[in-house]
Amino acid sequence: MTNPLRTLTRKPIALLAPLLLTACAHSAGPAPKAASAPPAQIGVASFNLAWAGSQQDFDHHAAVCTAVNWCDTRPKREKGQSRPTDEAVQAARQCVADTERLAGGPEKAGMMVPCNAYLGRDNATPPTGADYAAKLTGLQTTIANLIEKQGVKVIAFQEVRSAEVIKTLLGKYADRFGTCDAPHDGFQTTAFAWDKSMGETNAKCSVNTDLAVSDNPGAKDARKVRPGLTLELDWAGRRISFLNVHLKSSCANIVPTPIYQARLLDDPNPACQVLNRQVAPIERWLDSVGQRSPDFVLLGDFNRRIDEEAAANIPPEKVRTDGSNPAGVPHQDAIGKVATRYLWQELNDGTRALKQVPLTGIEEGCRGFTGLDHIVLSGALAARQAPDIGSRKTAVVQAPGQRIDTSDHCPRSVTLNL
Predict the structure, then answer these.
(1) What total of structural domains would you count in the chain?
(2) How is 34-61 classified by DSSP, letter by letter?
(3) Is residue 10 included in any domain, yes or no?
(4) 237: CATH
(5) Which of 2, 227, 254, 363 is the most buried (most CB within 10 A)?
């Protein structure tokens, strides 16, 4: 990666270059062809912050959750049970009702972190404000390391409350970075931070609300999943766009594991049905951004092992349930479902060229979810990268004995030639 300090020291020499070349032309014949300047490089990262809000957000969360005895709004299912008991379902419903009453109604409860989100491994003792402050400190230090050690200039965040929280987590770099978020009716949303040296006046953020599909179409009290967020910047004479996603969870893999069942996007599982209805909005988004900016990066928490899908080499006629060619945006039914089984093959369908940046390095101490966070380049941008381009995962900073994990995701980053 180009060192900005070294670049500054070369500027005076660059200013003298025309004079030196002219002198050579008069004294020694044709001047040798000047070497082309190295391509501009920037670090780009994606980081899921695991329910990151402000200290005040936590204080409100703790007050409500203490009053409801830290109950769980989701029915608990005991080991070996295929479904929760009627008693567990009723307990969860009561928890929802009590939480909504104390929070000030369903809408305000939706903007609050669930009571079980920070309980961690020691469920016997509820977390304190000091525990949450330690989490925020870990996030701030992790982000500082990305900026200082990896030259990261653009960061896509997921599971964050707002851009104001991002400004706090940027710490001493808050004035150096611009921020934006995607307004949402739930606590978790997507956000960006970018180094203002990449363009402060020409930066543009726009929200993709089409990705925020309902988790239960037709239901009066249904919630919407997270929206997408686009950041457009001018850099090195090009317009480049970053598309930040946090897709529906719990429909992640096509290779079964001891914990997770293999599921395709036509699976009747409710989570897969929601993810299925996000496919067409993503494709339309990619096409729209690609028309304005052929150079784009799609990154974030996909909640899907698109690396497994790519490795499976699925033939085109197997991608969709009706055997049709996956090229183009698939037809949606009345509630937005599409006839597709695989996310990656639908996105990289031949009408647009995409490249997954492979994971080539994992820092020691990196724990948490694997295979969910991805960085994908447009064909135009991928063509300017080294053939062996790779991304890395960096361990989050966490103090010994920290009771609330800094995050259950490691930030994933790549250095791009622009």
Answers:
(1) 2
(2) PPPPPPPEEEEEEEEEEEE--HHHHHHH
(3) no
(4) 3.60.10
(5) 227
Would the pTM count as exceeding 0.85?
yes
- Find the distance separating the first CA and the last CA of the chain, reported in whole Å: 12
Residue 91 domain boundaries: 71-110
Residues 300 and 349 in one domain: yes
Task: Write phi, then psi, for 82 (nearest 5 degrees).
Answer: -80, -25
Strands (E) across 129-174 are located at 152-160
- Asked whether the predicted pLDDT for residue 310 surpasses 90, the reply is yes
For residue 130, pLDDT beyond 70? yes
Percent over 70 (pLDDT), the chain: 89
Q: Does 394 map to a domain?
A: yes
Q: Do 49 and 93 have their domain in common?
A: no
- The answer as to whether 35 is a domain residue is no
DSSP 202-233: S-EEEEEGGG--BSSTT-TT--B-PPEEEEEE
Confidence check: pLDDT of 216 > 50 = yes
Same domain, 308 and 360: yes
Rounded to whole angstroms, the Cα distance separating 249 from 271 reads 7
Residues 104 and 236 in one domain: no
Residues 331 and 271 grouped into a single domain: yes
Quick one: the chain helix, strand, coil %, rounded to 5?
Answer: 35, 20, 45
Do 82 and 190 belong to one domain? no
Is the domain of 355 the same as that of 295?
A: yes
Q: At what angle do helices 129-150 and 163-170 cross, to 10 degrees?
A: 70
In a domain, 120, yes or no: no
182: nearest Cα among 191, 193, 174, 173: 191
* Amino acid in position 259: I
pLDDT of 40:
82
Reported as a pLDDT band with limits 50, 70 and 90, residue 372 is: very high
Q: Are 338 and 279 in contact (CB under 8 A)?
A: yes
Same domain, 98 and 211: no
Residue among 244, 232, 166 nearest 205 (CA):
232
Using the CB atoms, write b or e for 130-158: b if 16+ within 10 Å: ebbebbbbbbbbbbbbbbeebbbbbbbbb
Q: Using CB atoms within 10 Å of the CB of residue 79, give its burial: 0 to 12 exposed, 13 to 18 middle, 19+ buried.
A: exposed
pLDDT score at 19: 35
Q: State the angle between helix axes of 55-67 and 129-150 in degrees (0 to 180), rounded to the nearest 10.
A: 150
Answer whether 256's CB lies under 8 Å from 201's CB.
Answer: no
Kindly tell me the burial class for residue 269, based on how many C-beta atoms sit within 10 Å of its own C-beta (0-12, 13-18, 19 or more).
middle
Picking from 88-92, 372-376, 390-394, which range would have the lowest pLDDT averaged per residue? Answer: 88-92
Rounded Cα gap, residues 161 and 85, in angstroms: 33
